[in-house]
Description:
mainly alpha, about 0% strand, globular, EC 7.2.1.3, heme, iron
Amino acid sequence: MALTAETESRLYRSLRAAAGAAAHLVALGFPTAVAVLARPGSSLFSWHPLLMALAFSFLMTEALLIFSPETSLLRSFSRKVKVRVHWALQLLALLCALLGLGVITYNKHLNGKAHFVTWHGLTGLLTVLYAGGQCAGGVLLLYPKLMKNWTLAKLKLYHATSGLVGYLLGCASLMLGMCSLWFTASVTSVSWYLAMLCPLLTSLVIMNQVSNAYLYRKRSQH
């Protein structure tokens, strides 16, 4: 029997809610697993994977999921509160990323190793720089009068789109990090594939959220 439009819509919302809940669990679970694996404090390097996992798996994911109509932890709060929490989480993510970058740079310096010669290193550097630019660009949403020829709606659209690009870069950096000798020496077999699925899942959820927000905004304009 064919599903009605209302049933399909309800099913779609339920699937999005389930995927969002899974994204919350992954956002917290992945850095926790990295912390157990890295044992922060056991070496200078041990802080690098933890800080980067916190930045791009937990803080940045939660900063974006705040605006999800199905799975936001602040659904009952006003848009203004959500924006403030989004800002706080993004700034914390940038701080963790900068600290993680500083740690690995100093660690390589101490060990006489070359900097940014792997795809993971280059992508990580690009991601941190991009995140800094994205946070700076977000200031325009707080003070839209600085861009006189741009409407607030257009600024929001470009900020969301560029933010998605930055988030995907962060996920790519995490996945490349899981191809490193340190990670593959500790995580093998099925566990490695499950770990790789973590940033893949959250990126799919965030992409769906952003695309739906774009479609909703487009429909509201007609």
